[in-house]
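Example (one chain per record):
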Amino acid sequence: MEIENISQMLQNSRTFAKNDAIIIEPRYTLSDLYPIARLSQKMDSVLNVSSSPAASVTQAKTYETSYTVELVTQDDAEALLEMLKRFFFKDEPLNNSLNLGECKELEEYCLKCIKDGCSFKAVAKDGEIIGVFLNAIMHRPADGAEPEASADSCEHPKFKKILQLMDYIEGDFNVFDLYPGTDAILDGKILSVNSNYRGLGIAGHLTERTLEYMREHQIPVMNVMCSSHYSARVMEKLGFHEVYRLNYCDFKINDEVILKPEPPHVATRILVKEVCDVAKTKH
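Predicted structure:
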């Protein structure tokens, strides 16, 4: 299927999220620079695209002279958590709405995708991590495979509510349905920028490096889930377009709305971006 036909295919696709889904032109949320993407995809099942040394090594790129963009490694885990606790954990709308507080399950969740070797960090001259885009690789599920409910094993009662949202979306929407010729999709999970360094183009440069990785590894589509209104706006400015939407007021458990973030955060949205030169090569 040619990537140019995606718009027509989207128009003809089934109604995602029942009556709540909308498809418009243009799912890691940290203020206006945090998309948390496809949280329902189980990181434990994510595999590396390539096991070659080149898949785990990247050349640092310097932007102006203020910071570099580099590959995230396991050695960065402690520093990444410190940054995420300062800027992501306390600012993400769903975390705020639940007053999530200390959550080891969320900490573990955030770091699991490092092993995939496709996450990038922005590093200041003094070595401080000032931005990060945590990514993973999603592989097409086997025919007939039933998604596992991740919330069932969560012992944190508040984080469990967020996982229940993820489980619902995973059962309701499969991005691979939109791309029948694609077996691997890059999943942007958390994009977070230190608020003291905003305005330097860090989010855009981290996304640019992620798209370069996709070209290097012939991955034609990037998928993000945005729980924040602002994060979705940022991704649209970076060329992403929406394929799924679920209003928080319509997500209920036992007829009760369990997630009530403050406006303008009214819905979880999934946005995608196609790397056209890769798609044309693959199809």
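Caption: The two ends are 6 Å apart (CA to CA).
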